[in-house]
Inverse folding.
């Protein structure tokens, strides 16, 4: 590490203002901060030390995603790695371009977006669509609003919804049957040209046809679907890690799961022949993945605790409304986008109510 530090110090003048590569200063600073802790300190007191800076925050999310990542490679093969590379390359290019134009630092936030995005896509989606989707999500979902910390929408969700609307056939057809033998598909690369022989409908598609997938299969992950959303146990392991480390707020997760369970229970009790039971809804599709990893994004969810409860309820209820009463088989991503839209409004309502109470007490 000392050798690497010396290299950074040696080339630093070339990236400073007036240097040969000054236009690439954001890239240099991003690489330096990725390898080493930032050296900037406050000039004067008071001093505060927070163990969870942005880099550590993003690192915790990446660690939490590892169970889903490993399960996905086991069930669907090595193509996921190529999708991750494309995601980082295309989305990272947009991040770097805007950092250079604005002459700002490159934020570590894309480390999570670049990993999340492939996990919410079909296993055999063409790689060029992966690149287009993540570039659109970063550009429209984040950079147009001013970059990390100012975006209203979750960039990964924006990218997926764009692909679902622009390329519905590719996003809804030819789902891969997962490998669940001793080695799964660990040593396979299943591209779009090889998918015809191993296709299988997702649990949500089967439900529209009147057939419910086995809950134990959805819990383990031996069902077709988006890459990182099929294994309930892997998602729960990573999600609990986020809650324990306080990277994700438990109020958002609990409100989504509980509201979904209550609404699903009411629907199933009213008409068991038409509506699936609550446990099925919890493990089907991307509900758990969205609740733990997407809806808890600290930038796009409400800042107030009261707002988080209402935000989660909205996502849970809207998800079931879309699943049960529209032509779409899944509604989690659209529900999260709606939640992102109302999040600032929820915070505004909470703040106004607090001020109103304070004025009344005064």
């Amino acid at each position: 590490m000392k050798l690497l530090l010396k290299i950074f110090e040696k080339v630093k003048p070339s990236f400073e203002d007036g240097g040969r590569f000054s236009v690439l200063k954001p890239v240099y600073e991003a690489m330096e901060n990725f390898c080493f802790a930032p050296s900037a300190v406050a000039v004067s007191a008071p001093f505060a030390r927070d163990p969870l800076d942005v880099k550590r925050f993003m690192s915790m999310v990446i660690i939490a995603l590892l169970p889903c990542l490993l399960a996905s490679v086991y069930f669907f093969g090595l193509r996921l790695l190529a999708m991750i590379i494309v995601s980082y390359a295309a989305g990272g290019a947009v991040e770097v371009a805007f950092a250079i134009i604005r002459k700002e630092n490159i934020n570590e936030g894309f480390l999570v977006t670049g990993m999340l995005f492939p996990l919410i896509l079909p296993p055999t989606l063409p790689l060029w669509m992966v690149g287009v989707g993540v570039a659109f999500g970063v550009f429209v979902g984040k950079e147009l609003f001013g970059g990390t910390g100012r975006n209203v929408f979750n960039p990964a969700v924006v990218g997926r919804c764009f692909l679902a609307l622009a390329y519905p056939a590719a996003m809804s057809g030819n789902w891969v049957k997962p490998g669940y033998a001793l080695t799964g598909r660990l040593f396979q690369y299943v591209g779009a040209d090889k998918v015809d022989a191993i296709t299988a409908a997702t649990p949500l598609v089967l439900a529209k046809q009147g057939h419910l997938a086995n809950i134990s299969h959805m819990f383990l992950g031996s069902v077709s679907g988006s890459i990182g959303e099929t294994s309930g146990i892997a998602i729960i392991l990573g999600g609990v890690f986020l809650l324990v480390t306080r990277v994700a707020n438990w109020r958002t997760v609990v409100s989504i799961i509980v509201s979904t369970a209550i609404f699903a229970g009411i629907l199933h009790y009213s008409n068991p022949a038409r509506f699936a039971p609550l446990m099925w809804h919890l493990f089907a599709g991307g509900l758990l993945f969205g609740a733990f990893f997407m809806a808890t994004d600290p930038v796009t969810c409400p800042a107030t605790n009261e707002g988080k409860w209402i935000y989660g309820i909205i996502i849970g209820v809207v998800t079931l409304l879309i699943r049960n009463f529209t032509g779409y088989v899944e509604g989690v991503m659209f529900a999260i986008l709606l939640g992102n839209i109302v999040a600032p409004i929820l915070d505004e309502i909470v703040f106004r109510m607090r001020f109103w109470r304070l004025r009344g007490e005064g």
